[in-house]
Automatic annotation (TrEMBL):
Main subcellular location: membrane
Transmembrane segments: 61-81
Topological type in the membrane: Multi-pass membrane protein
Protein name: Conjugal transfer protein TrbC
Domain of life: Bacteria
Keyword terms of this UniProt record: Membrane, Transmembrane, Transmembrane helix
A GO cellular component annotation in the UniProt record: membrane
Location of this chain's protein in the cell: Membrane
InterPro entries per the UniProt record, alphabetical: TrbC/VirB2
Species name: Phyllobacterium myrsinacearum
Pfam families: TrbC (PF04956)
Length: 107
């Protein structure tokens, strides 16, 4: 019979162990040899299209509508200003991610 995790330390240790396991699993799953990397062109194109979809006109329109809606909700007291700043930061990070990765890769 399993005992529930009662202390915060136990919960944090289990959670950090699970996250570490997932990270190691992903590293092992996505590890490819240089010969196999040449056949990933279709996957790279699909990923590039997905990034372009979210950071292009569609993503900007949806982000603008969400930001306007949240701003109005915060202005009328239905949404907290802290949550508005967190979501705004997430939107800014989403749009800056592609540029940041390109900069770090040397493009």
């Amino acid at each position: 019979m399993m005992r529930p995790l009662r202390s915060t330390l136990q919960r944090r240790l289990v959670l950090h162990g699970v996250i570490l396991g997932l990270c190691i699993g992903m590293l092992m799953l996505f590890r490819t040899d240089s010969a196999a990397a040449q056949s990933l062109q279709k996957l790279e194109n699909a990923a590039d299209r997905l990034v372009q979809f979210f950071t292009g006109k569609f993503g900007r329109s949806v982000g603008a509508m969400a930001f306007i809606g949240m701003f109005l909700a915060a202005a009328f007291g239905f949404w907290s200003w802290g949550a508005l700043l967190r979501v705004g930061g997430a939107l800014a990070g989403m749009f800056a991610a592609a540029e940041l990765v390109g900069f770090l890769a040397g493009n």
